[in-house]
């Protein structure tokens, strides 16, 4: 049993606080991971306010890198000392989605069954089955995606963001939206996920990338990641602006990274005939939109939602890391600040106020790793 510091929220709307928790050794099929970095994601805040479930207390954090420190019985393809990105889609290989060759939709993903607890024995619910605002966490071995090749210690903060938000945006364009080279892409909402969608459009060869937001600073950030045209929807009708930029046609692919009824409708209307639309922004429970079926039919194309950007971690993470190393994908640009485990609650405030793309917690294990590499 390992006693470690971790960020926990004990009840709905309570602050995220640092507590000592107990992390057991791994059971069959599980991995114990020394966490290096973990990004502060909107999903963690959803857990805090009860927007995911009522299974308090929660162990927060999920956009993480780490080093495997122990393995349970039966684990193959992973070794102690491997450096990994954690993921929340450890595919089962047996459900109906996996059997039909679509494991990125796996309906029975694996998590660790051995429980981490508070000191009094209360079982913790790890965010997205990971729980990585902690010095050690316990996950299913399939939640560990090995990082091949060396990284500088300072690079782990950026690479860890592939664990959730950045991959959701990249995948919404490249996987769900099936971007073709030379197409036009419009992205509604330029927070972390939307900015990643802009980066994905650039990576995938879009020749016109239209960023839409209410905030000029966010638009300027999107431009730095590859947006060719900026539309402030506070000042102009975004649908009309997108049509004007596309010879009156609309975009080939439109991404809604906001997830409210208004942006959904705007994204729907901003498509070209037979264009595609992808919803990757997570709507609040109960959000509705009145569907004009004649327009759905008349416009053709497709309307899809992106679950984790239809990502398959063992396929997509290594590819994105390679693009990062080659300079094609600016993951460092998503890291707004590097903080300690004690700074998660203030980081939630900065995130809600749109002052950061990502705050990233750097654990003491990262500093130990850096010291070892210097020696």
From TrEMBL:
Matches recorded under Gene3D superfamilies: Medium-chain alcohol dehydrogenases, catalytic domain, NAD(P)-binding Rossmann-like Domain
Pfam families attached to this UniProt entry: ADH_N (PF08240), ADH_zinc_N (PF00107)
InterPro entries: ADH-like_C, ADH-like_N, ADH_Zn_CS, ER, GroES-like_sf, MycoS_dep_FDH, NAD(P)-bd_dom_sf
Top EC category: oxidoreductase
Domain of life: Bacteria
Cofactors demanded by this protein: Zn(2+)
Keywords carried by this UniProt record: Metal-binding, NAD, Oxidoreductase, Zinc
Family statement: Belongs to the zinc-containing alcohol dehydrogenase family.
Protein name per Swiss-Prot or TrEMBL: S-(Hydroxymethyl)mycothiol dehydrogenase
Species of provenance: Kocuria soli
């Amino acid at each position: 049993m390992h006693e470690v510091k971790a960020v926990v929220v004990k009840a709905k709307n309570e602050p995220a606080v640092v507590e000592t928790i107990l992390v057991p050794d791994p059971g069959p099929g599980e991995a114990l991971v020394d966490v290096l970095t973990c990004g502060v994601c909107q999903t963690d805040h959803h857990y805090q306010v009860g927007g995911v479930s009522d299974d308090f207390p929660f162990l927060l954090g999920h956009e993480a890198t780490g080093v495997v420190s122990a393995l349970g019985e039966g684990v193959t393809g992973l070794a102690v000392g491997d450096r990994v990105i954690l993921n929340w889609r450890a595919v089962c290989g047996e459900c109906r989605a996996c059997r039909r060759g679509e494991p990125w939709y796996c309906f029975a993903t694996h998590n660790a069954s051995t429980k981490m607890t508070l000191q009094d024995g209360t079982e913790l619910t790890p965010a997205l089955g990971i729980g990585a605002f902690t010095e050690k966490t316990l996950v299913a071995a399939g939640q560990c995606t090995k990082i091949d090749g060396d990284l500088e210690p300072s690079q782990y903060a950026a690479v860890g963001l592939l664990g959730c938000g950045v991959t959701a945006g990249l995948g919404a364009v490249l996987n769900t939206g099936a971007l073709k080279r030379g197409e036009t892409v419009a992205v509604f909402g330029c927070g972390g996920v939307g900015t990643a969608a802009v980066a994905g459009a650039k990576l995938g060869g879009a020749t016109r990338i239209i960023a839409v937001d209410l905030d000029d600073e966010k638009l300027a950030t999107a431009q730095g990641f590859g947006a060719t045209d900026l539309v402030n929807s506070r000042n102009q009708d975004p649908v009309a602006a997108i049509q004007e930029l596309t010879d009156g046609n609309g975009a080939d692919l439109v991404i809604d990274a906001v997830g409210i009824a208004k942006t959904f409708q705007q994204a729907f209307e901003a498509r070209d005939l037979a264009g595609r639309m992808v919803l990757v922004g997570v709507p609040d429970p109960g959000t509705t939109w009145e569907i004009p079926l004649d327009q759905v039919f008349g416009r053709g194309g497709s309307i899809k939602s992106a679950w984790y950007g239809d990502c398959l971690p063992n396929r997509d993470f290594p590819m994105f890391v390679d693009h990062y190393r080659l300079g094609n994908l600016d993951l460092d640009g998503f890291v707004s600040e590097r903080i300690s485990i004690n700074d998660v609650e203030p980081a939630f405030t900065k995130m809600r106020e749109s002052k950061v793309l990502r705050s990233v917690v750097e654990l003491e294990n990262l500093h130990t790793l850096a010291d070892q590499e210097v020696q």
